[in-house]
Design brief:
By secondary structure, this protein is an alpha+beta fold. Helices cover 26% and strands 26% of the residues. The protein has a two-stranded antiparallel sheet. The longest helix has 11 residues. The N terminus is likely disordered.
Amino acid sequence: MDNGKTTGSVRDTQLSDDDLEAIKVSLSGLRFGSVNISVQDGIIIQIERTEKHRIRRSPKLNSENA
């Protein structure tokens, strides 16, 4: 049944300047990883940042272990 309301859309989510700044800070400097934004009832309740650090091994180290 269509009640004329949009559910779960970006238009329903209230973004304050503080919310946008928190998202920008989470994305700042992120090279590898993800930012997960949890929304409940159209309100951002949590921002998680997961960062991955790539470790580069030198070819010399790899050949010594073989």
